[in-house]
Amino acid sequence: MTERVEGHGGELALAALRAHGVREMFTLSGGHVFPLYDAAHSTGFPLYDVRHEQTAVFAAEAVAKLQRRPGLAVLTAGPGVTNGVSGLTSAFFNASPVLVLGGRAPQFRWGSGSLQEMDHLPLVAPVTKHAETVFSADDIPRAVTAALTAALTPHRGPAFLDFPLEAVFSVGDAELPAVSPIAPIEADPDEVAKAAGLIAGASRPVIIAGSDVYAGDAIDALRAAAEALGVPVFTNGMGRGALPPTHPLAFAKARRVALKGADVVVVVGTPLDFRLGFGDFGDAKVVHVVDAPSQRAGHVQPAAAPAGDLRLILTAFAEHPGDRADHTDWIAQLRVAEDAAKARDAEEMAADTDPIRPARIYGELRKVLAPDAITIGDGGDFVSYAGKYLEPAQPGTWLDPGPYGCLGTGMGYAMGARVSHPDRQICVLMGDGAAGFSLMDVESLARQKLPVVIVVGNNGIWGLEKHPMRAMYGYDVAADLQPGLRYDRVVEALGGAGETVEKAADLGPALTRAFDAGVPYLVNVLTDPADAYPRSSNLA
Ligand SMILES: Cc1ncc(C[n+]2csc(CCOP(=O)(O)OP(=O)(O)O)c2C)c(N)n1
Ligand SMILES: [Mg+2]
Q1: What are the residue boundaries of the Thiamine pyrophosphate enzyme TPP-binding domain, all occurrences included (predicted)?
Q2: Could you identify the atom of ligand 1 that is nearest to the CA of residue 458?
Q3: How many CA atoms lie within 13 A of 246 on its CB side?
């Protein structure tokens, strides 16, 4: 049964948004989008405002990533939209169902030079799944439904609509289109069986599971497949925490040994990109399991590449009827490597050096983080260390920027995470360079009573650029920041609190104070600028 709705453009948009389960908007004010605010205000729809549009889009993305539902950012015409483009692009790379609604100069005098008159579509079309200008109020519910359907259909991603001023301010009426569940894409059963046979028959198989496994709600199916076929599991992105760290098949540290020794590498729900050596695993056969045919790699020829609903494919793997090779020795071999690496990590995480090394920060953090704490990485080397030393205990607790690698996600992701999980610890791990992109939005967090903890690894440099540049040229430029800068005082000035830590022994108590503070709290840890994250490649 469809419902008829009437009202101004903002009200028509909100009716359709609510029907799709959108529960809040992130925005920065501009007159072009006032009707959307009016609709929210008059119906008690939560609205969070920010100090830079990138924060609004990143907040919407965090909601989308964590909750597997659409996140909404409302951006005013022209500069509002252009400031959101890096956020949209990140959402595109991360397959996050984000909807950006933009204001737009009036259509009736298009070409006469209205304020902020520009056509946004050519800018956003390459980084969205659906981009459309909606020219009449009556058409808004249809367009919102089409945009959200595109965003939620695997392979997921962002969508964009803009509303010319007169369309969103005028009154109209329309049928509210029925919201139908997104039909799962069924993979070719022969390809699924071929993949399952390859894994089951392998002597030394490895699974690497990424973000789409979480987005596709296929975590349980992943575990069932791994257990049924006895395959060690490594993860990246939102796949992290898919298996609890104590699970006999959960691995993180032995990746190099695993990929060197594997005869079949199964990559599920993540592209064969730079993070995975572009899918080149030597002599090993590659099985690439993707959530839509568009995600099959063009640069690698996998032995099998089933494309479709990940839950269905992984469940079929678990139910594979044929013989299974025994992998006990292989798993035991990896466990030895894993345990040895863990012992080395434990030593590093306890290191009592002066200045503090990043590893120690994570050692202390692990003692105070709850298993369901959400950790967010925004920075260079400091975040690489976070990836190494933090072990997400549950899926949906780790937010990294993804393969677009955009600095500046920090406060936006923190806002989206806080709104998603009001009762959990939210902890942003931030480089001092990264801090410059979004720290002003602590003001938005403080004012709207959204406490989060920010731990800055303050090495006084753009570390991930300085060290490689020195290695390449023997000198560096444009890589220094002010050493010892008091980012904690910035946060204090913006309505939060914080402190600077210089001695390793002071870290634990500072972190405890931070999580108890009830306001945005920044722990500014002065770290050793000489410390460089060891990388095989110096370009990141
Ligand atoms: C928006 C954006 N600009 C520039 C870069 C390039 N970049 C990647 S890491 C990095 C250095 C980050 O420095 P910081 O946040 O201080 O972390 P550190 O490496 O020092 O731990 C830079 C500039 C980027 N990834 N994103
Ligand atoms: Mg730095």
Answers
A1: 378-525
A2: 16
A3: 3
CA 447 to centroid of ligand 2, rounded, Å:
27
Which ligand is in closest contact with the Cα of 458?
2
**pTM summary value:** 0.98
Ligand 1 centroid–CA 463 distance in Å is 7
SS3 (DSSP) at 394: coil
Average pLDDT over residues 26-46: 98
Q: How far is the CA of 379 from the centre of ligand 1 (A)?
A: 5
Q: What is the band of 67 on the pLDDT scale with cuts at 50, 70, 90?
A: very high
Alpha-carbon distances, residue 138 vs 72, 163, 227, 250 (angstroms)? 21, 12, 52, 52
Mean pLDDT of the chain, nearest integer = 97
Q: What is the pLDDT of residue 162?
A: 98
At 438-493, the pLDDT tens digits run 999 999 999 999 999 999 999 999 999 999 999 999 999 999 999 999 999 999 99
Cα 457 to ligand 1 centre (Å): 12
Among candidate residues 362, 374, 364, 372, the one with its CA nearest the CA of residue 450: 374
Nearest to 528 by CA among 476, 466, 471, 436: 466
| Contacts for 215 with CB less than 8 Å, ≥ 6 apart | 65, 68, 95, 96, 156, 238, 269, 291
Rounded to an integer, what distance in angstroms lies between the CA atom of residue 342 and that of residue 194? 35
DSSP labels, 146-162: HHHHHHHSSSP--EEEE
Q: Which atom of ligand 1 is nearest to the CA of 383?
A: 21
Q: How confident is the model at residue 322 (pLDDT cuts 50, 70, 90)?
A: confident
> 462: Cβ below 6 Å to ligand 1?
yes
pLDDT of residue 539: 41
Task: For residue 86, give the ligand 1 atom closest to its CA.
Answer: 1
What is the pLDDT confidence band of residue 540, given thresholds at 50, 70 and 90? very low
From the CB of 85, is ligand 1 less than 6 Å away?
no
